[in-house]
Amino acid sequence: MDARRPQPSGLADSIARLRRALRRGARVADPANELAIAQLELLSCLAERPGTRPGQLARLLHLRPNSVTTLVNSLAAQGLVSRSEVPGDRRAVTLEVTGAGRRAVDAWQATNSAVVHLAASTLTASQRATLARAAPALDALAQAIERLADANAAPSARESR
């Protein structure tokens, strides 16, 4: 193994397992939700950043622009996302989550919260307390990772569209 390459950390592995388990748990808890994880992540990102352009979403979600276009087209057809032209540039659009899209995001977040709450209730009091104390640090870690990704992302000409 290359000594210069960072080794997987226990924390990164735990976070990856947690993400997979949470997605699976939420799917089991809400089998009626027919949206794909990629659609839910795009909706969630857009709900946090109204008025985002497709190229910006591609960068934020680390997806190819054509993948974002496919996702947006599907979500728009379902009435979950709306497009608006950018004044002065008929080729450019901004995206907004519709009321139905917001309800889908809220339902997904509520399902995730319920899954976490139920699973946490099976842990010891000490483990629950540790998780509660760790939550602000995990949020700060997520923000730091976002800042690093933003600083290292190569802007493209398409993002401005």
From TrEMBL:
Residue span, HTH marR-type domain: 8-150
Database matches in PROSITE patterns: HTH_MARR_2
Pfam family, one: MarR
Protein name as it appears in the record: MarR family transcriptional regulator
Organism: Planosporangium thailandense
